[in-house]
Amino acid sequence: LRDYDYSLDLWSLGCMFAGMIFSKQPFFRGRDNEHQLVKICEILGTDELDKYLQTYGIELRSDLRAYVGVQSKKPWSKFIKRKNKQWAVPEAIDFLDKLLKFDHQERLTAKEAMAHAYFQPVREREGK
What we know:
Blueprint: H1 7-21, H2 33-44, H3 46-55, H4 62-68, H5 90-99, H6 110-114, H7 120-126
């Protein structure tokens, strides 16, 4: 638990939020840890993963590297369908994109998340 950081909670929020706005639960469905990474990379791409690994001096096992392969980042618009477009508004997509970052230093903090434009209608209703 010494490596725990609140940014992990924001990653989790991003995963749940993606599932909600795209009507796909869970959004990253993996059979195990390795397969989970593959599913994440199929959407976020391996360029960002590689950048994260290089930044923090992390090396993937060679078998895991081969399993993950090389993946291109998918645009969020690929997941917008007729049944979910009412929730996948631009502010929601921007919020999601700022949560699902490999690098925890690039991810929104909780305070930044609460101040995001996606929540402006809530702040207006609350008079804040």
